[in-house]
Structure formats: C-alpha cells, structure tokens
Amino acid sequence: MDALLTAEHEALLESERNLLVRLHGLLARTGAEPTLRERLSEVIEALEAPFVVVVVGEFNAGKSSVLNALVGEKLLEEGPIPTTARITLLRHGTVQLERPRSAYLVERYHPLPRLRHLVLVDTPGTNSILRRHQELTERFIPRADLVLFVTSFDRPLAESERQFLAYIRDVWAKRLVFVLNKADLARSEADLTQVLEHIRAACRELLGFEPEIFPISAIQAFEARTSQNPTQRQQCWQASRFEAFEHFLVARLAGPERLRLKFSTPLDIAERLITRLRIHLAKRRTLVKQEQQNLNRLEAQLQAAYQELLSTVRPYLAEIDNQLLKVERRGLKFLQEVIRIGRLSLLRDRDRFKEAFAHQVVCDLDQRLEATLAEAVDRLLTQGLQRWQLSFHEFTQRVEQVVRRRPPRVQAALLHDRRRLFESVVAQAARQLSTYDLREESRRILENARDAAALFLHAEALAGLGALITMLITAAGLDVTGGFAAAGVLALFGLVVLPLQKRRALQEFRKRITLLRTSLHTALTQQLEYEVDHLLERLAATLNPYREFVAREHRLISETTEELRMLSRECQRLRAAVAKAVPVG
C-alpha cells in the first residue's frame, strides 16, 4: 500500500498543524479550560498520522500477518501460538525504534513510506481485549478510521470473537471491515462461499447488518511483496486476493470525501475553539472593564484627597503667615521707638538691642511656629490615613463584587488569579497601614520642611524651623539699624539725618519681613504639597500589583483578539486550499 497523501496534502497538514499549535499556545496564555487544551493536543497528535487502522481478532487468526502484508515487511512476529501480548502501534519514524508506553502498550517506529500518515494498531487476541479493553476503547477505537476484524478460514468467528462483536456493536460496528484470512485453505470456491455466508449470518444476528468482508491470504500477499521472482510474485499476488482489499482500504481511507473530512475536521475544531476563546475574552473584557473602572474611581478619589489634604494644611500656613505679620508690626513699632536721639545708647549697644528686640518683637515666635507646623503635619497625616482607609474600603468592596460574587456566566477558574491577587493586595495594604509610624513620619516631614525653608531662604539649617525664622528676623532688625552705630555723626546731624535714616530702616525691615513671609510660605507650601503627594503615592503603591495585573489583562485581551483575527483568516485560507486540493464530486 503506497503513501496515502501527496506532497500537496502533506503541506496542507503541516499548515493545519501550525495553526492548531498557535491556537494551543493561545489557549494556554489565556488560561482557557484545561479540557479544551487537552482536546486540542489530541487533535494535533492525530494530525501527525491522520489515518488510524485498528486490527482485532482471535489469536492465530493472522492479524500480524495481515499487517506485515500491508506494509511489505515483517515488522510483527507471527506464529501458531499467541505472539502479540501487548497492544502494538506501528508508526512512521526516521529510524527504527521501539518505545514502551505502558505494561501492555508499545510503539514501534519504522521509516517505511507506507506508514506515512498512518498508524496501524495490532492487538492481542479478542479474549485478551475483553479483559483489558479500557485502554483500547479510550485511546484507539474512537479515533480509528477502520477496525479490521480478522478471522480465519479454519476458525471463522470463534466464541471470543462473537463476544467481542457483541461488546462493540453499539459504538464501533459501523467502522468494522471483516478480513477472512487464510482463504487459500479453502478447497473450492463453494467452501469459501459457505464460510463467507456463515460470517454474514452471524453479523446479521450480532450486529444487525452485513459488513464488508474480504477473503485474503496474508501469507501469499507477503510472499508477493517480498519475493525476488517476478513469476512467483505475480502468482502469489493473484492467489492472495489482496488487491481488492488494498484498493478498498485506500479508497475508504483516502477517498475524496473521506480526505476532505480529514482535512476539514481540524479546521472545524479550530473555528469552534476560536469562537469559545472569543466568548472567553468577552467575559475577561467585562471583568477587566469593571476592574479598570474601580481603579479609575480610586485614582479620582486620590486626586480629590490631594486637594482636600492641601486644604487641610492651608489654614496652618495662613496662621504661620499671620504670626509673621504680628512680628512685623511689633518690629516696626519697636524700630519707630528706638531710632531716635534719646535711644542712641541702645542703638550703639548690639547686645542690649538684640535682647530688647527679642523680648519685644520676636517674643515666643519660635515656639509658636514649631507648634503650628507640627499641628499642620499631624493633621495632614491623620486626615491622609483616614481618607485612604475610606477610599480603600470602598475600592475593596467594589472589587469583592467581582472576585467574590461570581458574575453570571463567568467561570470560577477565570476569577481564581484575581481572587488570589486581590487578597494579596488587601493583606499588603493592611500591613502598610498597621505599620505606619505617625510619629516618625511627622518628624521626617518637619525636618524636610526646615531644610526646604533653609534652602529657599539661603540660610543655614538649625535645630528647628522656629529657631531659623527667629534668627532671620533678629538679623533683619540688626542689619537695618547697623548704620546708627556712628553716634558722633548722628549727634552732629541728628536733626537732619536721623528722620531720613529712620524711614529707610523701617522700609528695609518691612521689605525683608515681607520677603521672608513670601519665601517661607512658598517653601512650606511646596514641601507640604510634595509630602501630600508622597503620602498618597506611598499608600496607593500597595495597589501597584493590581494595576499591573489590569494592564497585563488589557494587553493580553488586545493581543489575543488580534491573534484570533489572524487565526480565523488562516482557517478561511486553509478551507479554500482544502477545497482546491481535495475536490469532491
């Protein structure tokens, strides 16, 4: 028997196999049902050898002889005692190889051209199959294109064979083809006809129909295939009656209608799986849309929280500015009273001036500033955590509606990864909130605010913001009165110069305090804006795994949708190629 497929057919099979392999990878990447992947793996495996012929019958009926005659080589043992103890699969391979698959299943590979695209399954005697039929039933008969039931002329339809026919009649009977081996033992055509009628009658009784029956001599056919004598080959071939049997097998296996079915079935399966995948993706798209909406809602809440938290600290910034305004008013009043002829001694004594300025102008500014800023930071942190807890609680409730309350028509397996990820995110957020050290965070923000103000004001950072501002205000007071140290000049020109210098000193002090207020407000505002943003980012970072998951889902759905579109187009192309390569009618 020659190879069943042409080179064009082989190229089509390879294209179909590549299509199904791509589809299998897509099923794996999208987490589709394992049963779908298993089914597709079986179809891919079947494409390696699309034709499967199973041979059954009583031992010594000549099953192995029939297969050896079909392939033209003695690949299987023959003899008068049971020689096939295991189910044997004959496959095409580049080298001869035997691979045991189980205690009673073995695969044999052989580089025979006749085995291309064909798997021949040799079985033990029918009595053995009855005892161990599960492997045969589940793995081979459902895929078999033909079941060759080999019986012998000298023992037609032995009791075990009848039992086996009764067992398979409901499922496999339509695939049965009877082979009456050892037909050369018949002394006459009448004897042969009598045996054939005996088999037909038994089939009508056991199966309800008459199957195809081919009387052959496997020994004569094998001799015709292997003899070196042309005359002997011709005589043995005619005596074997094998030609009609072989033509029937080729027509039955690789006839146009059967071949079209062989090529179309994988494409039918692929298109059904593509449809299933599209439904699967639609469900995932619905889920990820809900997840994205939940994330978008949380992002909007975080933006609102940002503005809300800034509004929380603005009154404290205004209070700090108000304290500086009071210092400015006290400073102007102090300078108004001090810069005059009668207070020249105070102006000349830097230490006394500094002490009086601190007592009457600065007062307890450093403590007030520190207290106000600390209160602002505490308020910021407390409000920030409360706002986050409320937003996160609402977020978790919405996510739970997706992953804990299964939406209609959504498979439980589809939600498994989401549930696990969601529970991990919730646990991480809970740990983040439980370990959040408000005191330490407050200390850090206060240090950052002091450093930012010092940098903005071009001053050296001190132990606290209040001390820094006090130093700068005192320095301003000293600087604007530094020119009054030349007491002799003031005494000589006091009536003329002093009022002018006084006005300049007051203007300069007001200018410097205004600049200090503006710079401090800008520095603190920018720093606290940063701290608000940092606080919310740090808390929201607990959701990064969820964000990444949603982003991956978006990419997967988009890429899979495009891949399915390409696979669908490839299915259509292959259908047209099959119609051209295998015309029917």
TrEMBL record:
<protein>
    <submittedName>
        <fullName>Dynamin</fullName>
    </submittedName>
</protein>
<feature type="domain" description="Dynamin N-terminal">
    <location>
        <begin position="53"/>
        <end position="95"/>
    </location>
</feature>
<dbReference type="InterPro" id="IPR027417">
    <property type="entry name" value="P-loop_NTPase"/>
</dbReference>
<feature type="coiled-coil region">
    <location>
        <begin position="281"/>
        <end position="308"/>
    </location>
</feature>
<keyword id="KW-0175">Coiled coil</keyword>
<feature type="domain" description="Dynamin N-terminal">
    <location>
        <begin position="112"/>
        <end position="183"/>
    </location>
</feature>
<keyword id="KW-0812">Transmembrane</keyword>
<feature type="transmembrane region" description="Helical">
    <location>
        <begin position="482"/>
        <end position="500"/>
    </location>
</feature>
<dbReference type="InterPro" id="IPR045063">
    <property type="entry name" value="Dynamin_N"/>
</dbReference>
<keyword id="KW-1133">Transmembrane helix</keyword>
<dbReference type="Pfam" id="PF00350">
    <property type="entry name" value="Dynamin_N"/>
</dbReference>
<dbReference type="InterPro" id="IPR051943">
    <property type="entry name" value="TRAFAC_Dynamin-like_GTPase"/>
</dbReference>
<keyword id="KW-0472">Membrane</keyword>
